[in-house]
Each structure stands twice: as structure tokens, then as C-alpha cells.
């Protein structure tokens, strides 16, 4: 059996014309990918009408010192569940390290720390996630639709949300304007 191509720490970029509007220009940070499946957090689309401070208030937390950054559409699975992709200078009980990208926490303690001004120095807050069962992502990667880019923390934490897709392709040496969304004819 061929060894699976594990993509933890990579950014999955949806190719033009992927065929699923939920993933148009998607940028997904793959946080876990092993023989059991994969979990990624969408970092390329902001949710409309909610910011970090509003989310904290909805959770009954005093926003305190938290800046009002965007809340991202993490993916179609469990859209009411929150995740924070963050720098490795903070860690909680359930924090996992994501090679090349930082760390991921899915418990409320990271949001409390952010509100209190003692959380990670860089972070992205998302609702929902993208998930793949055993072998599913490996199979999807054999077909057109996704491109695996290097995970670059400077793109995650230093690039505005709407620019992450294009910036990720450019960092790979690809001009996204040249990507074709349709099939050609010979």
C-alpha cells in the first residue's frame, strides 16, 4: 500500500471552478491529517455580521482587551463550534501543535485568555471546520480541485483574510490570474 500524503501544516487552496460554491477561493489550514482522516480550518472567508468581540459577548465573556478582528468561516462541519488557530506562545489543556502553522485550540480557555489580554500574540478565530474521513482527503488530492501550498504563518497572521488565497498561490510562484476555471478544447 502506498504511504498516504499527509498534509498537516499545509494550506489547501481551492482551484477555480472547484464546483462547490462553499469552497470557492477557499484557503484551508490543514491542522490534522493522518491515517484516520483530516481536519482543517477555513481561513479565507470572514463571517458577515460578527467580530471577535461580538462572539465573546455571545458566549457571556467580557471582551476586555480583545481587539475586534474578524470571525472566519472555518468550514461546513459544526458551524456553531469555535476554533482558534494561533501562535505557539500560548497553550491550553487541549491545544495541539500544527507544524508550520502554530497551534490549534478548540476550547473556551483560549477565548478567555484573549479577552483578558494574556492569550496568544497572533490568532484567528473561526466557527466550524472542514473534515475528511479516513482516506477521503488523499482521494480528493488525486483529482483536480485542490492545491496544497506550504503553510506560511506570515500569510495566516500577516495577510488580510480576502487576500490569503491569492497570496498563497503567489508564494508558491503561481500567478492566480493564469489559473483557468474551465476545460480547454484541442
Automatic annotation (TrEMBL):
Signal peptide: none annotated. SUPFAM superfamilies: VC0467-like (SSF143456). InterPro entries: AlgH-like. One of its GO terms (cellular component) is cytosol. Belongs to the UPF0301 (AlgH) family. PANTHER family: UNCHARACTERIZED PROTEIN YQGE, UPF0301 PROTEIN YQGE. This is UPF0301 protein FMM02_01465. It comes from Sphingomonas xanthus. The lineage of its organism: Bacteria, Pseudomonadati, Pseudomonadota, Alphaproteobacteria, Sphingomonadales.
Amino acid at each position: 500500500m502506498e504511504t498516504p500524503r499527509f498534509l498537516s501544516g499545509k494550506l489547501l487552496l481551492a482551484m477555480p471552478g472547484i464546483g462547490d460554491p462553499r469552497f470557492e477561493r477557499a484557503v484551508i489550514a490543514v491542522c490534522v491529517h493522518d491515517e484516520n482522516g483530516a481536519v482543517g480550518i477555513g481561513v479565507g472567508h470572514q463571517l458577515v455580521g460578527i467580530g471577535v468581540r461580538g462572539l465573546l459577548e455571545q458566549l457571556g465573556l467580557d471582551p476586555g482587551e480583545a481587539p475586534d478582528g474578524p470571525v472566519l468561516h472555518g468550514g461546513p462541519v459544526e458551524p456553531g463550534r469555535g476554533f482558534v488557530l494561533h501562535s505557539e506562545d500560548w497553550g491550553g489543556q487541549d491545544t495541539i501543535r500544527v507544524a508550520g502553522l502554530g497551534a490549534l485550540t478548540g476550547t473556551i480557555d483560549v477565548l478567555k485568555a484573549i479577552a483578558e489580554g494574556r492569550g496568544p500574540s497572533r490568532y484567528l478565530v473561526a466557527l466550524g471546520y472542514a473534515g475528511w474521513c479516513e482516506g477521503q482527503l488523499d482521494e480528493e488530492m488525486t483529482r483536480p480541485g485542490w492545491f496544497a501550498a506550504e503553510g506560511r504563518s506570515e500569510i495566516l497572521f500577516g495577510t488580510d483574510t480576502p487576500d490569503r488565497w491569492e497570496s498563497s498561490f503567489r508564494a508558491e510562484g503561481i500567478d492566480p490570474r493564469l489559473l483557468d476555471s474551465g476545460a480547454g478544447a484541442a
